[in-house]
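Service request form, structural biology core

Requester: graduate student, group of Dr. S.
Request type: structure prediction, single chain
Budget code: on file
Notes: please return the result as structure tokens.

Sequence provided:
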Amino acid sequence: MTDVFDPASFSVLTIDGYEFADGVFTARYTLRGSSGDAPFAEVVDFTTALGDRRPDDRLLGLLALTASLSYYKAAAPPRIEIAFPTAEFEQQYLRELIAGGLGEFAYRNSLPDALTPHVSGPVGRRAPQPAVDDWDARREPLVPVGGGKDSVVSIEALKRTGMRPMLFSVNEFDPIDRCIEVSGLDSVRVRRTIDRRLIEANAAGAHNGHIPVTAINSVIGLIVADGNGLGPVVLSNERSSNIGNVEWLGRDVNHQWSKSIHYETLLRETLRGLGFNPDRYFSLLRRLSESEIADRFRACPDYFRVFISCNRPFALDKGRRGATWCGHCPKCLFVWLLMAPRLGRPEVEAIFGRNLFEAADNLAGFADIVGLGVHKPFECVGEYYEAAESLLSVLEGESAEQWRGLPLVEEFRTRRTELGAVAAAPDDSDPADYVPAEYAASLDFAELPG
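Core staff response, request fulfilled:
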């Protein structure tokens, strides 16, 4: 890689192909342009998750398409050429994945054209293998674990019905491993490695920003579940992930797009086109608000000291990882708001290691989260109304005396009328979901008494 990476010099990304050998998947990509070629390789090691079993080629091809966004965004060229045969619906999958999944990237980099590259390649629909999907929905599910409260609620909901889901993670992170250990369930892990040359390109001037990681992990999960003869891949994406952050040039820019019902529908329909039963993939928590999930998480005290929703412990660079909550990012602030009235001051201070209402520099962050700031943060946070509801409970609920006198609590007390207006405008839409009845019944539990 040269010392200077000029995104404008590249005119096309080619998705060159993929291979699977000795348990390792490799997808190859090349940015091509006037200053030469920039080749990349994405590697996913399935060895410990699949043993010597070879994944279905249709899913490997889908993974190659999905993982291409990391390399496409480096230059965001006007064309993408797929070198191997794909069906038109697979090419359309890639177009929609870019348009929705790179919305935040395009917004932050002022690159609207990055969302509409011309996608082409030899069209050759691969016949389903087998012609009829013999997958058995009654087998135990695969549940991705993120280390936060949402996947914990899914895990414990399924355990309450007598299921023993196989837990799944991509790469190694302490909060995920701790949650898996508390669950007492078996788990599998794969290792995904981004090409080091991409990191070097970013340092040399390549475009950088958010990509739909959940989409990549979802396809990896489908490969693991299929290879192990498991039931569905059960995600833990909630209703609020359907709500975007800002409107930009007529588009809804959504940080959580790959967690939304829009991506869930897209992936399910793509699976159908490939000859798979689309019920191999759904989100268990889709109909629940963040508040309803927090109510259920209250019934999972064994996880209180091990879960973390902050991004700091999940940094790709191990040298930059923190051991616990940072106490300032939008995810920390949102989870604090949800848990403060539900668990009380002593418990949330023990979880976070500090009191987030004491830090004056958190004022703007809290304002954004409760709908009194600039816009919904570009993070995995819930809706304005439920954050405002929680803050009102801090101000006026049963545990209000615990919080009285704290700087930010008193600051927001002066804005009680505005908070009330936000809390009074909940999202009363009836979101679509694909949860089978036997799984939906697992959510019929709420918080434990007091």
